[in-house]
Amino acid sequence: VDNPPVRRVAIFGGTHGNELSGVFLVKHWQENGAEIQRRGVEVKPFLTNPRAVKKCTRYVDCDLNRVFDPDNLGRTVVEDIPYEVRRAQEINHIFGPKGSDDAYDLIFDLHNTTSNMGGTLILESSRDDFTIQMFHYIKNALAPEHCPVLLIEHPSLKYATTRSVAKHPVGKYES
């Protein structure tokens, strides 16, 4: 498959404000982005849920990683709209719009888990040839480290995760 080159990549941390590995990495790269920059590629580290990070809680009003659906993204902004819905709309404006040709090519969404799953990559579609090849490369580059890939695909499921804004969404979980 001949895909256009990846030109814009975002690295998200803090989708859940109490998952600090991604928060620390994003803040580090915002201060010193040289180690993630590559010629011909824009790489943007981004703190997705700063209010939850400040409170060190999973979310403020609702789970940011569940509100990137058409209903919430198209919701009228009113005073009492949940913080994470408003934030999803802002993220969609910056990195999307979701499902469009203008959306970022790739979003890495960094998470922590208390499950004993080590470093795990999350794949949302078995039909995304680019992401499958990228995961293959990552797994080979990490050898002999164990790096499982979890496919969370369902034919009737429309993903509402932060990373689903991108053409190629990638979740990375670390325990």
UniProtKB/TrEMBL annotation:
Keywords: Cytoplasm, Hydrolase, Metal-binding, Zinc. GO terms for cellular component: cytosol. Its main location: cytoplasm. GO terms for molecular function: hydrolase activity, acting on carbon-nitrogen (but not peptide) bonds, in linear amides; hydrolase activity, acting on ester bonds; metal ion binding. It is found in: Cytoplasm. PANTHER family: ASPARTOACYLASE. This is ACY2 Aspartoacylase. It comes from Psilopogon haemacephalus. The gene is Aspa_1.
